[in-house]
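[job 4471] stage=fold_predict status=RUNNING
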Amino acid sequence: MGMPITAEVLDGDASAALGDTFAYFRAIDERFSTYKDASEIMRINRGEIPETAWSAEMREVFALAEKTKYETRGYFDIRRPDGLIDPSGVVKGWAIYKAAQHLNQGGHRNFFIDAGGDVATSGTNANGEPWSVGIRNPFDQTQIVKVVYPRGTGVATSGTYIRGKHIYDPHTGLPPQGKTEKSDFSVLVSLTVLGPDVLQADLFATAAFAMGANGIGFIEQQPGLEGYAIDEYGEATLTSGFERYTIMP
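[job 4471] inference complete, writing structure tokens
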């Protein structure tokens, strides 16, 4: 999937569960990768597969993308400025969410999945303690600037400090902007969102980051979402309910 994936399963047949989980991620990569010419999404972009022949998974991802585009006033858009469709902004969180569902359905209650900074957790860690997630310093990735305890929520981080400028404002085709008449914030380099599940957290983290300086304000207005933003000067801005996730349950 073009990113490191870490998974830990602490109950049941963990070895088989991990094997199934990574096999699932490989299958998703084969279908949705924009780097593999034979993937379904690349064939759709080349006009080789009519909509009537799209897979059920592709239809589900496209429907999620359209719903999120509406909910975010167009700031979430899987159509790139060059006209090609890139569903990567949906697929990562969606795939983690599905993998977590599969583990739950298999009877697993204590696990952790992290794909490129998007995290789903369940139960407790190997020490019997609540899972914790560290937010990295975007200017020094060896440092953790904040530790959160998801408490069953999903965690997702969008930013430019690893992959560079890969998120654009769909309305302008330009990278997200900083200060505007409606905002005193500078250009964001990292935005972490906690949501009801990792899929919602990922979708809204991407959209809010595309909004630029106004993104953290958008997260503040969304029921069930909390956020932690870091700007180009290293200043952090957090939503009103974020701090409750920094205290161990």
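[job 4471] summary: The CA atoms of residues 32 and 41 lie 5 Å apart.
[job 4471] exit 0
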